[in-house]
């Protein structure tokens, strides 16, 4: 098994695709979301491995990685240190970064704080501000039918989120604002089955609608102009991360590119795979020269 020592424990990684020195494309490092939702749901990115190595890792506390019980580990600062340890252990000296959702937040913080050999950054369906994200999900929840809203609010207030009624309501949310593809791919179910719920609860809170965790105040909007890497921002029309906020991020990051997926929520690599692959291949090829 391929593992790397990081602050707090050992993490699992997997490299897919060509390994010869003559490979035309630079490696792509894939940073998963959650926090705590392991890499499985991003397996679609293996499609890009015909042109370049694609590297996945399960962040500490979820998937195939160690699951330490120390809740003090679940901070943005330690997560950045983990990402840096992974990059150094893999010897990535010229590479692309792809971060989805929470992974996009972690990727932003990483490139803002850590020197590296990264040649491009893709921020997929993410945010630069947890307070802005919280405002957006509150607006989206108000668009759900009254019974679904009531089930979410009532069970979260009572602490009965294990109830079938609550789980049904969250599935309605997920099928509307997370992934609109039908049926869901097995890789997405598998990610939820192997999720590190303790990480999510510690960093975010009990749900997206009640963010009280360690990153509740995280906001890098005033630092986005510091991002000097070529940057691609991907947003979904029905995304739980506001596409309007992502467009503002694009307007702030000098020279960045913005792509809106009209038929997607949060996972365009699953919901609109053909357009996603076309956009990604073009962007990565263009910046392979570093």
Keywords:
290 residues; 16% strand; eight-stranded mixed sheet; globular; AB_hydrolase_sf; 37% helix; 10 helices; alpha/beta
List the helices and strands and how they pair.
Blueprint: E1 3-6, E2 9-16, E3 28-31, E4 54-58, H1 76-89, E5 95-100, H2 102-113, E6 118-124, H3 130-141, H4 146-158, H5 164-177, H6 186-193, H7 197-203, E7 231-236, H8 243-252, E8 257-261, H9 268-271, H10 273-286
Parallel strand pairs: 3-4, 3-5, 5-6, 6-7, 7-8
Antiparallel strand pairs: 1-2, 2-4
Pfam families: Abhydrolase_1 (PF00561)
EC number: 3.4.11.5
Keywords: Hydrolase
User: Helical percent range?
Assistant: 25-40%
- CATH H-level name... which superfamily? Alpha/Beta hydrolase fold, catalytic domain
How large a portion of the residues is in β-strands, by DSSP E? 15-25%
Write the CATH fold name.
Rossmann fold
Integer-rounded radius of gyration = 18 Å
Enzyme class: hydrolase
GO cellular component, one term: membrane
Family: Belongs to the peptidase S33 family.
GO molecular function: aminopeptidase activity
């Amino acid at each position: 098994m391929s593992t790397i020592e990081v602050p707090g424990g050992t993490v699992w990684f997997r490299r897919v695709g060509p390994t010869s020195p003559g490979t035309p494309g630079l490696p792509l490092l894939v940073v998963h979301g959650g926090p705590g939702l392991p890499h499985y749901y991003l397996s679609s990115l293996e499609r890009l491995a015909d042109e370049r190595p694609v590297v996945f890792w399960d962040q500490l506390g979820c998937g195939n990685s160690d699951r330490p019980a120390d809740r003090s580990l679940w901070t943005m600062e330690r997560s950045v240190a983990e990402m840096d340890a992974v990059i150094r252990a893999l010897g990535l000296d010229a590479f692309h970064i792809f971060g989805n959702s929470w992974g996009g937040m972690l990727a932003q913080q990483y490139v803002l704080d850590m020197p590296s050999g990264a040649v491009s950054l893709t921020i997929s369906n993410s945010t630069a501000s947890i307070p802005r994200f919280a405002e957006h999900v509150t607006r989206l929840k108000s668009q759900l039918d009254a019974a679904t809203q009531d089930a979410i609010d009532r069970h979260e207030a009572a602490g009965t989120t294990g109830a079938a009624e609550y789980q049904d309501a969250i599935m309605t949310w997920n099928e509307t604002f997370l992934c609109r593809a039908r049926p869901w791919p097995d890789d997405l179910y598998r990610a939820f089955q192997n999720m590190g719920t303790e990480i999510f609860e510690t960093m975010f809170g009990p749900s997206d609608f009640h963010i009280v965790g360690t990153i509740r105040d995280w906001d890098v909007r005033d630092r986005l102009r510091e991002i000097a890497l070529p940057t691609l921002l991907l947003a979904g029309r029905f995304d739980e991360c506001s596409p309007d906020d992502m467009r503002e991020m694009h307007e702030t990051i000098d020279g960045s590119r913005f792509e809106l997926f009209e038929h997607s929520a949060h996972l365009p690599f699953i919901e609109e795979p053909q357009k996603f692959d076309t956009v990604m291949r073009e962007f990565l090829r263009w910046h392979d020269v570093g």
